[in-house]
Write a structure and sequence with these properties.
The complex is a heterodimer.
Chain A lengths: L1 H25 L14 H29 L2 H25 L3 H16 L8 H4 L9 H8 L10 E4 L3 E4 H13 L1 H9 L1 H32 L4 H23 L2 H14 L1
Antiparallel strand pairs in A: 1-2
Helix pairs in contact in A: 1-3, 1-6, 2-9, 3-4, 3-9, 6-7, 6-10, 8-9
Chain B lengths: L6 H11 L9 H19 L2 H15 L2 H9 L8 H23 L6 E9 L5 E8 L6 E9 L4 E8 L2 E2 H14 L6 H12 L3
Classes of the chains: A mainly alpha, B alpha+beta.
């Protein structure tokens, strides 16, 4: 499986650079960093209203039931399994971001949690000091793009998934394409691939929604234009994450990280 | 829908990689610690309307609401009359007091720990803190503190990288521009919201 990562690596590095360049060229709205660039506001608001209807009727009630009735260890277990499935993509992104040490930790986490952690149900790796990271291609593009991380290209609301932008939307698509699990399952048969993708999407949606209930209810209640408030909050949070990464990956942070790993071993 | 999907995950990483906490006992850090202590005291001793009144007191004492209100209205601030500004700020205080009362009413023993204070060249102090929860990941909260002429005041709160002032600014600006570019409908809406029963 590890060879698989590196086989894809060269292609990914090239496409990431190309995308970063593309983002730098096309992603510049002239609205400044404070207000997200939203040229598709009309269609976005339309998708947003459909998402809200679907959420109210189907997603939210199930998420509430899940949060209130599923025992906490079960919720944690499912969350850990889903996070574990995301580790290979995180490792790929960390390699592309030029942090092979961090990627090795992620691969180590994946190997430990998939075996000793029983298919990822238990996050054993965190307990022995291998801390968790989560990186997607959206983060990688943001990391390399020479623009303010608030500028992720045009804002877009994806069906069901919700807030995104050009950077993160492209990132999601690439992450899905390079995900070893989908490559393997689709390699077996199309049916297997779609069953895997559908199940993972559905459970991830449930997990994420149950974890965002409080924050999103709060934002909706305390805003006069929920669409605009969510767009702003999403953009800020993503920018914060990417900015932290840019600040942290100096040579010093790399050394600190290596020291930490050395201490663990 | 996935707005905060990475927040919880990124926290684990941030907590692990963050530099050791520097001695944080400057006036800015003290302000935050005092405000947090006041709030926890309020939560423990009061509830309902009394709690809301207390929270309102904390907002007025520690926050510079006029500064934040002006920042949130951005360019529209200049187009508002003094009477409109007063109504706007009053409505903002009411809605914030209510929002915080509701957030705190779910209080379950969380503690706020100030990690470090960084000074910006423009005189603004940024206080990094973590809200440690009894279950689940700690929440990162950054406080922007500055001297606005009446001593140190909080002028913004960033929760998980999301600024309260900035989010309100986008929210308010969008509402204003979809209502003929006028501030009056926004003030009416905020006042109506603050009158609604919980």
């Amino acid at each position: 499986m590890v060879e698989g990562f590196f086989k894809h690596m060269a292609i990914i590095r090239q496409s990431a650079l190309a995308l970063a360049a593309a983002a730098a060229l096309t992603g510049c709205g002239d609205t400044g960093v404070n207000e997200p660039w939203d040229p598709l506001e009309g269609p976005n608001r339309f998708v947003f209203s459909i998402n809200r209807a679907v959420d109210t009727i189907a997603v939210r009630p199930v998420a509430v039931l899940y949060r209130d009735w599923m025992p906490a260890p079960g919720q944690r277990g499912l969350h850990n399994v889903l996070e574990n499935l995301g580790e290979p993509v995180t490792a790929i992104n960390e390699v592309v971001q030029g942090s092979p040490g961090r990627a090795a930790t992620t691969v180590g986490r994946f190997l430990i949690n998939s075996t000793i952690g029983v298919a990822g149900i238990f996050d054993v790796a965190s307990r022995i000091g291998l801390s968790k990271t989560k990186e997607g291609m959206g983060d990688t593009i943001g990391y390399y793009a020479g623009v303010e991380p608030e500028n992720g290209g045009f804002y877009m609301v994806l069906p069901v998934i919700g807030p995104s932008n050009a950077r993160d939307g492209v990132g999601l698509a690439i992450d899905a394409a390079v995900d070893p699990f989908s490559i393997i399952t689709f390699g077996i048969s199309n049916t297997a691939g779609w069953i895997y993708a559908g199940t993972r999407f559905g459970t991830t949606l449930l997990d994420r929604r149950s974890r965002t209930l409080f924050a999103l209810d709060d934002l909706e209640k305390n805003s006069v234009d929920y669409y605009a408030a969510l767009k702003s909050a999403y953009t800020q949070q993503r920018a914060d994450f990417i900015r932290q990464k840019r600040d942290k990956t100096g040579p010093r942070a790399e050394l600190e990280q290596r020291d930490k790993v050395a201490l663990v071993r | 829908m996935f707005a905060s999907r990475r927040a919880f995950l990124c926290l684990a990483a941030a907590a692990a990689v963050a530099p050791p906490a520097e001695a944080a006992d400057g006036p800015a850090a003290q302000l935050i610690e005092k405000a947090a202590a006041d709030v926890i005291e309020l939560i423990k001793t009061t509830k309902g309307a009394e709690l809301e009144a207390g929270i309102r007191g904390v907002l007025l004492k520690y926050f510079d609401i006029p500064y934040m209100g002006q920042a949130a209205l951005a360019t529209h601030w200049n187009a508002t009359s003094p009477e409109q500004r007063e109504r706007f700020l009053k409505a903002v205080i009411s809605s914030e007091a209510r929002a915080y009362t509701e957030r705190f009413s779910k209080y379950g023993g969380q503690t706020l720990v100030v990690a470090r204070v960084s000074q910006r060249p423009n005189g603004v102090s940024v206080v990094d803190s973590k809200l440690n929860q009894t279950n689940g990941q700690p929440i990162t909260i950054q406080w922007e503190v500055r001297d606005t002429g009446q001593g140190l005041r909080i002028t913004d709160v960033k929760i998980e990288g999301v600024s309260m002032v900035m989010t309100h600014r986008s929210d308010f600006n969008s509402y204003i521009s979809s209502h003929g570019g006028k501030v009056e409908p926004l003030i009416d809406e905020l006042e109506a919201k603050s009158r609604q029963p919980q």
